[in-house]
Specification:
By secondary structure, the protein is an alpha+beta fold. It has helices spanning about 1-30, 195-200, 285-315; strands spanning about 40-50, 55-65, 70-80, 95-100, 100-110, 115-120, 140-145, 165-175, 180, 185-190, 210-215, 220-230, 235-240, 240-245, 250-255, 260-270, 280. The longest helix has about 30 residues, at about 285-315.
């Protein structure tokens, strides 16, 4: 009887292991997650820096669905190696620069709310899975904000004119960590200029910014901007202009059509600590977490089997009355 109980327990443990293994396989073999389209035609931004260092961002985006009909995907960098190469792997020890993006909402041109789907993904790791993160082969991470729904696919043939289906969306979000410590105070850098200036790993990141308005709680110091675009055979820096509208309001205008743009502004004082640069160690791969969960589950199952076996062993060893 004792051996029969042990066999049953081992069978249950085997079934549990198979189920957990099947779960791990399902995670890796799930259908790819396609983030949407990147055919942003025009982006106009409004940055409102709050006294606590939080950056409130409003983006008015003109988007072309084209013939594919994919929904808009607005992509924002939320992690990169602080000092290592942008393509550094998770096995590379180091500290990562991170940004916390939260309170993401969207509306259409009429002001009606539009659904958003947020997925954080490694841009160097295709294919993408429904979980949003298919491991961490690199220490880069982007937040994909999928806005609205798809449109029906339109069949096109050779020689047909490109299909243009325009829509306007207003995307709003907040950023913590957009400031960096500087001499005499802090410096706003948004979006992160390092990756744009490098010209590397810019799928979805480089978007055509027309202008940006920056409002600050104190007079900014030396506000400036830089434009970047994909020139033939090279990644080029393009001109832009910063105009002071009021003492605490600056307008940045991109001079090159189709270029991305970053803005920089110094801010005096120590009142922005909550919005200062955030750093943490590079994350562990999802595969490592799956292994940890499986090992933990197997250990728990083994302990349960041992407990059952010992209880049955005690019962069978006791003489019957």
């Amino acid at each position: 009887m004792r051996y029969s109980a042990v066999r049953k327990s081992l069978a249950a443990l085997t079934i549990l292991g198979l189920l957990l293994g099947g779960l791990a396989i399902a995670v890796h073999e799930a259908q790819p997650y396609y983030p949407g389209g990147a055919d942003i035609v025009r982006l106009s931004a409004d940055y409102n820096l709050k006294a606590d260092g939080t950056l409130e961002v409003t983006e008015t985006i003109d988007y072309n669905y084209g013939h594919l009909g994919y929904p808009l995907a607005r992509v924002i960098q939320v992690r990169r190696p602080a000092t290592d190469d942008l393509g550094a792997s998770v096995k590379t020890p180091g500290t990562d620069r991170i940004w916390k993006v939260f309170d993401v909402t969207a509306t259409d041109s009429s002001g009606a709310k539009v659904a958003v789907d947020l997925r954080e993904m490694d841009p160097l790791l295709p294919p993408l899975t429904p979980t949003g993160i298919d491991g961490w082969n690199s220490r880069l991470s982007d937040l994909h904000i999928k806005v609205g729904d798809s449109l029906p696919y339109v069949t096109v043939h050779a020689g047909d004119k490109p299909v243009t289906r325009m829509a306007r969306f207003v995307v709003r979000y907040k950023v913590r960590g957009a400031l960096e410590r500087a001499s005499g105070g802090y410096e706003l850098n948004w979006p992160d200029r390092r990756r744009l200036a490098s010209g590397e790993q810019l799928d979805y990141i480089g978007v055509p910014v027309v202008d940006t308005r920056l409002a600050t709680p104190s007079d900014p110091i030396s506000p400036s901007c830089a434009g970047y675009r994909d020139a033939p055979g090279d990644w080029a820096v393009t001109p832009c202009a910063a105009t002071t509208k009021t003492a605490r309001e600056t307008i940045f205008t991109n001079a090159q059509q189709g270029s991305s743009m970053t803005v920089v502004a110094g801010l005096p004082g120590d009142g922005f600590a909550d919005g200062a640069a955030l750093y943490d160690d590079s994350p562990a791969p999802v595969s490592a977490w799956i292994r940890r969960i499986l090992v933990g589950a197997l250990l728990v199952a083994a302990l349960v089997v041992i407990a059952i076996w010992r209880r049955r062993a005690v019962r069978t060893s006791q003489p019957e009355n």
